[in-house]
Amino acid sequence: MKLAIIYYSQTGHNFQMAKWAKEEAEKNGAEVRLLKVKETLDESLAENNPAWKKYLDESKYIEEATSDDLIWADAILFSTPTRFGNVASQLKAFIDAQGGIWAQGKLINKVVSAMSSAQNNNGGQEGTIKAIYTTAAHWGAIILPIGYTADEVYTQGGNPYGASGTATNDGFANDLEGAVRVQAKRVVDVTSKLVD
């Protein structure tokens, strides 16, 4: 099955989540495209933000997502930080630009799952993921939450909607990797059954 992992990250947290997901999905037999969305902020401001600058340097090789990537994919796994309890504007702008392929029915029956992070424990991660699922419903996509399907969701970071982390200067306050891997494997397993 073909999986597009599409993320927005400013300081690298959702980039790390996307890389864990890619590794797990490929381990389970998926063909994966790891893609970022276009940055809309003035990147010169990163000179005053070491974490942002580091992320920009580390992600130079990542291609930007296009509508063609959504058409190509059997499943889409989004990852975004929460911004005031909602999807980061950069990812939202990408999603909002898909009206053309939506009108052509090219997003129907795509499996969609989502992950998020925030700088505090109750920073809107669930609401952010659910906002992506609202869009997926409009697309006619098949919404695939992580659910309480594995111990890692309880112990490492998540809620029934998707893996979610509390971002810190040193990574994550919770050991999020296991939950991200559970979600990526679930996307591959379920989508593989649907596309066979």
From TrEMBL:
GO terms for molecular function: FMN binding; NAD(P)H dehydrogenase (quinone) activity. This is NAD(P)H:quinone oxidoreductase. One of its GO terms (cellular component) is membrane. Residues 3-188 form the Flavodoxin-like domain. It is an enzyme of class 1 (oxidoreductase). Belongs to the WrbA family. The keyword Oxidoreductase applies. Its EC number is 1.6.5.2. Keywords: Oxidoreductase. Coiled coil: none annotated.
